[in-house]
């Protein structure tokens, strides 16, 4: 068959010797890896185009002579493709099944932790509420973009929390009057299912605390909205001078520094005689609360943002508050 007639028939062949050698090698590879009868192959209406690489393309051919290489190998290629696809699907199914099994084990263990927990501590930003409060405050004062970058770095463990807190507040440079106006006109959206979860925990005899690297001035209204007493808030305080100008933050608060949430949970356990406490949050500072004497188990909440390093280090990762509620049933 001439090159042009092969082209019209749909079967493209290379005229170079290197392409022919590559095609021969491909055919030998195909013959050794696939099992199919040549008689079945000759009856199939498709043929295989062998190019200069091991990949194969199926083309409809006008030449179905029993002696042609195309008729000998076209069905084998389809068998190989089907076999490879089935193998890939089988591996994917097995992987998904294993992931589901591991998730079920984690959920069962967390249900046990929650059952015996004396208290559950929640981070606030991107957990109880669907935003970062300090970023919202920064937007109001015109420093949103720069502060958001520092928040992201701090939450992912890229810098010490106290350094990030100091740098962000200096960028914002808030005033007492400005913060008051911001709070008067701004309400933080509560995550779906959060109120119901707090009610369920309280009626189950467990206490609820808010442990946050945010600011008490902004968290108190959130606590009131979800039914958590303000005396169960562990958070930072923005300080102002007599003229209402920014004067720093209270660095005696444990949540003002890296590892501070672990210290806060330790204080909660010691002052209340608790044996078991579960921490829920989205950031690295929340994961750090799970230390000896601190939180006994940690749930990573990914409903607002997923931080892979935090989720992978957690005892369980959930995307909805309802998933935690289900573990209490």
Automatic annotation (TrEMBL):
Transmembrane segments: none annotated. One of its GO terms (molecular function) is L-phosphoserine phosphatase activity. It is an enzyme of class 3 (hydrolase). Its cofactor is Mg(2+). Pathway: Amino-acid biosynthesis; L-serine biosynthesis; L-serine from 3-phospho-D-glycerate: step 3/3. Residues 13-24 have a biased composition (Low complexity). Its EC number is 3.1.3.3. Residues 1-24 are annotated as: Disordered. One of its GO terms (cellular component) is cytoplasm. The active site is at residues 123, 125. Gene3D superfamilies: HAD superfamily/HAD-like, Phosphoserine phosphatase, domain 2. It holds the Pfam family Hydrolase. Coiled coil: none annotated. Keywords: Amino-acid biosynthesis, Hydrolase, Magnesium, Metal-binding, Serine biosynthesis. GO terms for biological process: L-serine biosynthetic process. Belongs to the HAD-like hydrolase superfamily. SerB family. This is phosphoserine phosphatase.
């Amino acid at each position: 068959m001439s090159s042009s007639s092969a082209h019209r028939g749909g079967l493209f062949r290379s005229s170079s010797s290197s392409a022919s050698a590559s095609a021969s090698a491909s055919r030998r590879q195909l013959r050794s890896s696939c099992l199919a009868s040549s008689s079945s192959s000759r009856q199939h209406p498709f043929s295989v185009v062998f190019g200069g690489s091991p990949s194969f393309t199926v083309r409809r051919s006008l030449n179905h002579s029993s002696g042609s290489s195309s008729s000998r190998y076209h069905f084998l290629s389809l068998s190989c493709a089907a076999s490879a696809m089935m193998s890939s699907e089988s591996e994917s199914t097995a992987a998904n099944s294993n992931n589901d099994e591991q998730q079920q084990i984690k959920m069962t263990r967390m249900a046990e932790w929650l059952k015996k927990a004396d208290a559950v501590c929640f981070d606030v930003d991107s957990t109880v509420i669907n935003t970062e409060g300090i970023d919202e405050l920064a937007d109001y004062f015109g420093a949103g973009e720069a502060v958001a970058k520092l928040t992201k770095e701090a939450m992912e463990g890229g810098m010490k929390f106290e350094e990030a807190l100091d740098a962000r507040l200096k960028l914002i440079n808030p005033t007492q009057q400005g913060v008051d106006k911001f709070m008067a006109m701004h309400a933080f959206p509560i995550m779906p299912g959060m109120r119901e979860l707090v009610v369920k925990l309280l009626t189950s005899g467990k206490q609820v605390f808010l442990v946050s690297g945010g600011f008490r001035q902004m968290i108190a209204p959130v606590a009131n909205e979800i039914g958590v007493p303000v005396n169960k808030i562990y958070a930072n305080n923005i300080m102002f001078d007599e003229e209402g100008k920014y004067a720093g933050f209270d660095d005696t608060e444990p949540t003002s520094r890296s590892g501070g949430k672990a210290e806060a949970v330790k204080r909660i356990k010691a002052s209340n005689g608790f044996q078991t406490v579960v921490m829920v949050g989205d950031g690295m500072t929340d994961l750090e609360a799970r230390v000896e004497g601190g939180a006994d188990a940690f749930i990573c909440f990914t409903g607002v943002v997923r931080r892979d390093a935090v989720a992978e280090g957690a005892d369980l990762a959930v995307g909805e508050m309802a998933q935690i509620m289900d573990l209490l049933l």
